[in-house]
Amino acid sequence: MPIESAVQQEPRTRSDGRATRRRILDAATEEFARHGIAGARIDRIAASARANKARIYAYYGSKEALFDAVLADNVTSIVDAAPLNAADLPSYATALYDAYLANPNWLRLATWTRLERRPRGSLFSEGAQLDAPKLALIAAQQEQGAIREDFSPAEVHDMVIALSLTWAPTSVTTAADSSDDDALHDQRRRALRIAVEHAFHTGSARL
Q1: Per the domain annotation, does 74 fall within a domain?
Q2: Which of 58, 88, 89, 199 has the fewest CB atoms nearer than 10 Å to its CB?
Q3: DSSP string covering 85-154, please?
Q4: What is the pTM assigned to this prediction?
Q5: Which domain holds residue 41?
Q6: Same domain assignment for residues 26 and 104
Q7: Cα–Cα dist 151/204, whole Å
Q8: Is residue 76, in this structure, part of any structural domain at all?
Q9: What's the CATH code of the domain at 171?
Q10: How does pLDDT run across 74-99, given as a tens digit for each residue?
Q11: Main-chain dihedrals φ then ψ at residue 201, nearest 5 degrees
């Protein structure tokens, strides 16, 4: 094959590989969210992704490693949808609420992770590395007197996330759904903003 033809085809090959990986991750997200790790079947993922099993194992090595890749991919989508602004923790909490509504599979994957992979400690093996930049932002706000200092940055971060999960699709009390009335979603967002504001921010409320 002429060198020119090989060079011209190479970007298409890389693009095809990225597209295949994307299909695999999307199919695996649905499979793992529905069935967990033990119940998931690579055959079903391969059929849904229009990829053969050998390709999946070549990319990821094992079903467990594929699950970890799926979890990391979904974490990235949540982080992108709800970036932390330590100066406005109430908005962070409501952004998480909206992200959970838009992507309920993320919480299902997190639940399966707790049940089958990591029953203790951080949800992610690289949790400390992922949280470090956020904790630094919270610490900076504490140094400026904007966030209460009687909690550690990690405690602030964990509790804001816990509050954002109050009506999450996996809630053990009342589970929110995207089909709920807009007024109900607005009421929950306002309640979250008030709770987070009064729990962690110092000074006068901005609500």
Answers
A1: no
A2: 58
A3: -GGGHHHHHHHHHHHHHH-HHHHHHHHHHHHHT-SSS-SSTTHHHHHHHHHHHHHHHHHTTSB-SSS-HH
A4: 0.83
A5: 1-66
A6: no
A7: 19
A8: no
A9: 1.10.357.10
A10: 888 888 889 999 999 999 999 999 99
A11: -85, 145
